[in-house]
Amino acid sequence: MTAIRAVVTDIEGTTTPLAFVHEVLFPYARARLARFVKENEGESQVAATLADARELGGVVEADTDATVRLLLSWMDEDRKAGPLKVLQGLIWRRGYEDGVLKGEIYGDAAAMLRRWNDRGVRLFVYSSGSEEGQRLIFGCSDKGDLAPLFEGFFDTRIGAKTESGSYRAIAEMAGLDAGAMLFLSDHAGEIAAAREAGMQVVQIDRALKRDSWSEGAGAPVAGSFDPVDRRFFAE
After folding, report:
1. Would you list the DSSP string of 84-150?
2. Whole-angstrom Cα distance, residue 135 to residue 44?
3. Better pLDDT: 8 or 157
4. What is the rounded CA–CA span in Å between residue 120 and residue 188?
5. pLDDT digit string (tens) for 33-55?
6. How far, rounded to the nearest angstrom, does the alpha carbon of residue 126 sit from its chain's CA centroid?
7. What is the pTM of this model?
8. Residues 128, 39 contacting (CB under 8 angstroms)
9. What is the CATH number of domain 6-16+103-233?
10. Which one of 17, 46, 53, 164 has the largest count of C-beta atoms within 10 Å of its C-beta?
């Protein structure tokens, strides 16, 4: 087995409970989207993002209200649209800055990320959420500022998470052979794509006991980051 030099981790269901994203972050942004757009549509980044949304939605002549309705429809569909992610990230940033939001990180994930960083393992995030949103979850977390632990944050601008080319691109950007990288995710399709790209993989299943480890047919499955540490980084 090739020694692991870098870990790439997903967020939802892996380092962070799905409930935090779907029951806290998404409703928070949805409730504030219309007001945020109307108060900030003259600001250059927001204006450009709204223009991108209209183009993507095929409604380039839409007014502000119609654009907000488009964005809300994308939220209802859980569509991973770039302009929507940008606006969500801007809204969340204010929430984190105001102390209203705190990124929720599993205790085992926070502890192992710190341990691996201390051991010189390079750390990266790859999530469907925007890079801005990723930085905020880890930077303003209930386990402290974890953002400095990470060398890089990747979102779907690098490619879809179920396509092997995305993981090859991450390895190339890291300057590492894919086999020296370990990808952690709760999503079987993502695990399969990373494995096809040559990465070592572990599927995280938070429904299992924390110390659970099994050699599945497609990939090893662990209940938390603890058995991952023992398997790959035990001294």
Report:
1. HHHHHHHHHHHHHHTTS--B---HHHHHHHHHHHHTT-EEEEE-SS-HHHHHHHHHTBTTB--GGG-
2. 22
3. 8
4. 28
5. 999 999 999 999 999 999 999 99
6. 5
7. 0.90
8. no
9. 3.40.50.1000
10. 53
Sheet containing 152-154: give its strands across: 152-154, 122-126, 6-9, 181-185, 200-204, 220-222, 213-215
Q: Specify the 3-state DSSP secondary structure of 106.
A: coil
**Cα dihedral across residues 69, 75, 76, 80: positive or negative:** positive
Q: At what angle do helices 82-97 and 64-77 cross, to 10 degrees?
A: 90
- 3, 27, 61, 78, 83 from 71: Cα distances, Å: 44, 13, 15, 10, 9
CATH number attached to the domain at 21-97: 1.10.720
6-16+103-233 shares its CATH topology with 21-97: no
Domain ranges of the chain: 6-16+103-233, 21-97
Q: What is the mean pLDDT of the chain?
A: 95
Q: Identify whether the C-beta of residue 36 lies closer than 8 Å to the C-beta of residue 90.
A: yes
The pLDDT confidence band at residue 227, using thresholds 50, 70 and 90, is: very high
